[in-house]
Design brief:
The complex is a heterodimer. Chain A is an alpha/beta fold. Chain A folds into 5 domains: about 5-110, Glutaredoxin (3-Layer(aba) Sandwich); about 130-340, 3-Layer(aba) Sandwich (Rossmann fold), CATH 3.40.50; about 350-435, Ubiquitin-like (UB roll) (Roll); about 440-525, NADH-ubiquinone oxidoreductase 51kDa subunit, iron-sulphur binding domain (de novo design (two linked rop proteins), Up-down Bundle); about 540-595, 2-Layer Sandwich (Alpha-Beta Plaits). In chain A, helix 19 (about 480-500) crosses helix 21 (about 510-515). Chain B is α+β, with helices and mostly antiparallel strands. Chain B folds into 2 domains: about 10-65; about 80-155, Glutaredoxin. The two termini of chain B are about 30 Å apart. The chains are: A alpha/beta, B alpha+beta. Chains A and B meet through helix 1, strand 10, strand 12, strand 16 and helix 17 of A and helix 2, helix 4 and helix 5 of B.
Chain lengths: ~600, ~160
């Protein structure tokens, strides 16, 4: 068979899929067939490239050409120019916003320069629905090495030596967790993969499962061998249909070639994997709650100990790790723990995947070595704040984390430094906010989430968070007092100290960290009733500039509560006691006479 | 709640689903997922059948249905609208989009329009944060939605 000259990689991740990457792919195949180019070019549907902001993305190998925001109409031009004539379609190339020049090779893009891809090593390179492409990139070599050359204890030692810590948020050493589970004796043990990614605004695990499902399966098998389990379960959100589909395909293919099932690689080791579906409950990311949910119950957490390593799924010893943690495992065995533990910092080894989103130029999925600073992530990889606005805060750790500010920008990203700064690593959501975001409202947003997601089992979380939310609501509506701020602080501390599980204990973090870092803004809200970001509408005051108003009466006619009065052809006024701050008048005014004070 | 008569064929399918899971209690959530696929929602009558088949109390089934946000006890509209209120969408103005939809489609969150055309729900993150703010109608995803575009999008239906 002749060697195919060009590989056209199309992103098939959820983000690009939503902007018609499937149509683009079939259009490519159509044009290739029409022009008889099937032996020159091949279309590959890959997982996420990470640079979602510029999606849908099409990358052409071998020359690493990176086309952005491609539409189905662009396909023919790409084939004619690039594939047939060998000329790049300049207008679709990524443009460096700082230098305003096109970048031809994706390796030179700032977005990728600082990244080291371990967990995401295959995302955007291989067809996730073809096991051979995974195998061609060292896939299942780690499994073969572990099964063939190592005892379970040796393999656990290797993971311990690597320094890998849980990527789901807590940061517990993975090797140690495996060792605990291996020590308990039972007729059946379980390996559980936590793919219940509930942090709103985070999509790391989904991208790994969509882009490289076999890496997770391989790691679960290695874990099974280490702890003595023959069954694996993946608990995945039902809201991720594409990831579920790709996992099903991967499991089927692995079974067909004997990499899952009985007597794997002729070593006598049996292991199989099943899927379990979540049904939308954030608390199920907590491992005891997750186990209850897999058993068919309400996903309520229980007090630890006993830890799942002793009594987990169906009361049998179980080891629960999250997707990204597992995705690191094959690399640790392929390249060695001593290679892995040279990356990162003293106490946080390896890399971390972040879902970078919010008011930032380059929204997307990134993987950086531990110890990279927030500044590098936001300004170099992320390309700075959208629309040239001023950076205000970055939120890490989701609803359990906190907001960090300008003064934290040079903090290296590690488990322990982020906690010391008042936030946490979390599963990897990183949301950037600018001057137009009101921090009291942001805290309220997270509390609203916690109140909705609290399972209701323990009182501090069920009632305490509800009260926190009420106080925050009162403040954003302009009725807060200084006393309320004290109440917020005290109540937050009580919830932290007394809630049952991780969800409750960390739920006040968004409140505490915004109070710490944006105290002035809270005080402004309660004393002078001002929201500097202009988000809390009830504190806004709409006023008509009499110099500009010509008295056209358009605003008065559109005001839903008749708060605007004035004679025709003379300036109008807004009665502040009646105004409901809906903003209709400002929208309707053709002369820009109405402003917010 | 008014009693609803379940369609014979759907009822049969539901009982088959329970059997395919060996009528095991531990499979309750999987059974409910399938049941929701069959009926579109999980009214009390469906929960009673499931409880009977799996030999658990109706309270247990209701406890699970009401715990998970994916399960719904109200029928959805012909075109279910879901607005993402994940953090990434929130900071890029998803709330304003939601307000606009409420105004244009005249429907509240969790409700269905009287003609059954639209229903409105909020969800947390579809994972297309690069396109924030995002809304879904059925399975179709709309990205970079500005409040001004809502009218145009809804007019497609």
């Amino acid at each position: 068979m002749a060697k195919i000259k060009y590989h056209i990689l199309c992103c098939g991740g959820t983000g690009c899929h939503a902007s018609k990457s499937d149509v683009i792919m079939s259009r490519f195949n159509e044009v290739i067939n029409e022009k008889g180019l099937t032996s020159d070019a091949k279309v590959v549907a890959t997982g996420c490239f990470g640079f979602c902001e510029q999606g849908p993305i099409v990358k052409i190998l071998p020359d690493n050409t990176f086309y952005t925001r491609v539409t189905p109409e662009d396909v023919e031009e790409i084939i004619n120019e690039h594939i047939i004539k060998g000329r790049k379609v300049t207008r679709l190339l990524y443009t460096d916003p700082a230098k305003n020049e096109h970048i031809e090779d994706s390796k030179h893009m700032n977005f990728y320069k600082k990244q080291i891809r371990i967990a995401l090593r295959n995302c955007g390179f291989i067809d996730p629905e073809n096991i051979n492409e995974y195998i061609a990139r060292e896939g299942y070599e780690a499994l073969s090495k572990v099964l063939g050359e190592m005892t379970p204890q040796q393999a656990i030692e290797e993971v311990k030596l690597s320094g890998l810590r849980g990527r789901g948020g807590g940061g517990f050493p993975t090797g140690l967790k495996w060792e605990f589970a291996s020590k308990y004796q039972a007729d059946q043990k379980y390996v559980v993969c936590n793919a219940d990614e509930g942090d709103p605004g985070a999509f790391m695990d989904r991208s790994i499962l969509e882009g490289d499902p076999h890496s997770v399966l391989e790691a679960m098998e290695i874990c099974g061998y280490c702890i003595g389990a023959t069954k694996g379960l993946i608990y995945i959100r039902a809201e991720y249909p594409l990831a579920i589909h790709r996992l099903k395909v991967a499991i089927k293919q692995a079974r067909e070639v004997g990499l899952l099932g009985k007597d794997i690689l002729g070593t006598g080791f049996d292991f199989d994997v099943e899927l379990r579906y979540g049904a939308g409950a954030f608390v199920c990311g907590e491992e005891t709650a997750l186990i209850h949910s897999m058993e068919g119950h309400r996903g309520e957490p229980t007090v630890k100990p006993p830890f799942p390593a002793e009594s987990g799924y169906l009361k049998k010893p179980s080891n629960v790790n999250n997707v990204e943690t597992f995705a690191n495992i094959p690399v640790i065995f392929n390249k060695g723990a001593n290679w892995f533990n040279k990356i990162g910092t003293e106490r946080s080894k390896g890399t971390k995947v972040f879902a970078l989103a919010g008011k930032i130029n380059n929204v997307g999925l990134i993987e950086v070595p531990m110890g990279t600073t927030l500044r590098e992530v936001i300004y170099e990889i992320g390309g700075g704040i959208k629309g040239g606005k001023k950076f205000k805060a970055v939120q890490t750790g989701g609803p359990s984390g906190g907001c960090l500010t300008e003064k934290h920008l040079d903090v290296p990203i590690e488990y322990d430094t982020l906690i010391a700064a008042g936030s946490m690593m979390g599963s990897g959501g990183m949301i950037v906010m600018d001057e137009d975001n009101c921090m009291v409202s942001v805290a309220k947003f997270y509390l609203e989430f916690t109140v909705e997601e609290s399972c209701g089992k323990c009182t501090p979380c069920r009632i305490g968070n509800k009260r926190l939310h009420e106080i925050l609501d009162k403040i954003t509506k302009g009725h807060g007092t200084m006393e309320d701020l004290d109440k917020l602080k005290n109540l937050s501390q009580v919830i932290k100290d007394t809630a049952l599980c991780g969800l409750g204990q960390t739920s006040p973090n968004p409140v505490l960290s915004t109070i710490d870092n944006f105290w002035d803004e809270y005080v402004e809200h309660v004393t002078v009733k001002k929201c500097r970001a202009g988000v809390c509408t009830s504190m806004l005051k709409f006023v008509i500039d009499p110099e500009v108003c010509i008295g056209c009466t358009l605003c008065a006619r559109n005001c839903p509560v008749n708060a605007i009065t004035g004679e025709r052809k003379s300036p109008h006024q807004i009665n502040q006691d009646i105004c409901i701050k809906c903003g209709t008048c400002k929208e309707k005014c053709k002369f820009g006479a109405i402003s917010i004070k | 709640m008014a009693n609803i008569k379940l369609a014979e064929d759907k009822l049969k399918a539901l009982i088959e689903v329970c059997k395919s899971f060996n009528n095991e209690k531990g499979e309750l959530i999987n059974v409910l997922h399938k049941a929701q696929e069959i009926f579109g929602y999980l009214p009390a009558e469906v929960q009673e059948v499931v409880a009977h088949e799996l030999n658990v109390s109706v309270a247990t089934v209701y406890g699970v249905v009401s715990f998970y946000s994916f399960f719904t006890m109200k029928p959805k509209g012909e075109n279910p609208i879901s607005v993402c209120l994940g953090t990434a969408c929130y900071v890029r103005g998803a709330e304003k989009v939601l307000e606009e939809i409420k105004k244009v489609a005249k429907v509240e969150v969790g409700e269905t329009t009287p003609d059954g055309k639209f229903s409105l729900a909020c969800l947390r993150c579809v994972g297309a944060c690069g396109l924030a703010p995002v809304l879904m109608i059925g399975q179709k995803v709309y990205g970079r939605v500005a409040p001004e575009k809502v009218n145009e999008i809804l007019a497609e239906y």
